[in-house]
Amino acid sequence: MSEEEKIIELYKDYWDYMIEKNIDGLRNLMSLDYCLYHMTGVKQSIDEFLRGLENGTFHYYSADHDDIEVSIDGNRATMIGKSRVVAAVYGGGKGSWRLQGDFTLRKENGNWKLTSSRASTY
């Protein structure tokens, strides 16, 4: 499997784990310094984000992937994933969004780890 294919699989695993609320799986995909920037501008650490997933602040039902672009430069990479996501967040009702995640990644001990993500719509 190429490095690009590994990163694409990581993106797919990310969404599967979000839907499953697989906290350990997600933590394994993320660097210790991972941070998420929500569409609202809110910045969350890995622990804050995973706590929100665990306590129901974020609930994801499905994700269908339209496009995943990867660019690798040595032990660093960027990825833009575009997915149609069904979710209920921050106490709102269940809705469908076309979410774009702009991710940065770093290779740690031979494995790609997400270091940040910035959510927007497309």
Automatic annotation (TrEMBL):
<dbReference type="Pfam" id="PF14534">
    <property type="entry name" value="DUF4440"/>
</dbReference>
<dbReference type="InterPro" id="IPR032710">
    <property type="entry name" value="NTF2-like_dom_sf"/>
</dbReference>
<protein>
    <recommendedName>
        <fullName>DUF4440 domain-containing protein</fullName>
    </recommendedName>
</protein>
<dbReference type="InterPro" id="IPR027843">
    <property type="entry name" value="DUF4440"/>
</dbReference>
<feature type="domain" description="DUF4440">
    <location>
        <begin position="7"/>
        <end position="114"/>
    </location>
</feature>
